[in-house]
Amino acid sequence: LIGNAVNALLDHPEQLERVRRHRELVPAVVEETIRWEGPIQFVFRRVRRDVTLAGVPLPENAILMPLIQMNQLVD
Predict the structure, then answer these.
(1) Residues in CB range of 35: below 8 A, 6 or more apart
(2) Which residues of the chain have pLDDT under 70?
């Protein structure tokens, strides 16, 4: 989370300067970083029964790694 916050602030120097001037914004930076670029971006799951997902057949006991993308809209 800290690394993601630092990268985001370095990518947006105007926001970094704003946080430097107004330290009370640090909690909001942490919350926004969690929302925008959280530290957990994928998880592992096991398929419990044969199923088709988005047209792809998944057999029982297959291991999936769904990505968690909070900052983008996905169709």
Answers:
(1) 70, 71
(2) 69-75
In the block, residue with structure tokens 């914004």:
25
pTM: 0.53
Q: What is the pLDDT of residue 22?
A: 97
What's the pLDDT score for residue 75? 45
Is there a contact between 5 and 29 (Cβ–Cβ < 8 Å)?
yes
| Contacts of the segment 8-11: beta carbons below 8 A, 24+ positions apart | 8/33, 8/36, 8/37
CA angle 30/36/40 to nearest 5° reads 85
